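Troubleshooting: if your tokenizer reports a length mismatch, compare your output against this known-good record of 254 residues.
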Amino acid sequence: MKLLQGKTVLVTGGSTGIGRAAAIGAAKAGADVAINYRSSSAEAESCIAEIEAAGQRGLAVQGDVADPAVAGEFIAKAVEGFGKVDVMVSNAGICPFHSFLDMPVETVQRTMNVNLLGGYFMCQAAARQMVEQGHGGAIVAVSSISALVGGEYQTHYTPTKAGLHSLMQSAAIALGKHNIRCNSVLPGTILTEINKDDLADMEKRARMEARIPLGRLGAAEDLAGPIVFLASDMASYVTGAALLVDGGAFVNLQ
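Known-good structure output:
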């Protein structure tokens, strides 16, 4: 029995990076998977091809999570295609690195609208569908180690990730009576599109790798297992929790 056999999983920002890895990982665990994506049509199509290669149904729905209306549209199309929603993985996010003192207002607002408000409305829409269905469900938010630590060029980003972590704690309380579990994963430094330019600095990359007890930066696929676990019935008594997936970076203070 695969961990997500018979379940329908929705993933935002599912065409690349952690979202893509989570979507494909969910399919390999037996789930039908619907992904949301904003602009990467070719990548979305190739992700669906991998989901189908795993023997599951896949669906790609285009839309910008910064638009609250997109949340309801994504849920509606997933239900139309698969009949239900069992799991929401709120992953879509951006991090345009910038210094604090001259941070453009537009950059702050866009980051908040995508990362925090986009996550809020997606999770809310999924929860409404789960409550209507009446058989519970699971919500997993992709937060970040940045919810717990600072970043000089991430003053607009870290509050959004702390917000997602906090959202899962409060939503766990609000939705527990409906048997809907809400948890977050907190990735460390993962090699994805979001940070490829920043990590092109080989000196900085080497310095970051040296701080990680496991000796390497993370890959998107490193998040697939933890997300599948939290989405599965193996985590049936886990809610309001946060799972660090950072190779030990957070604890390596000395």
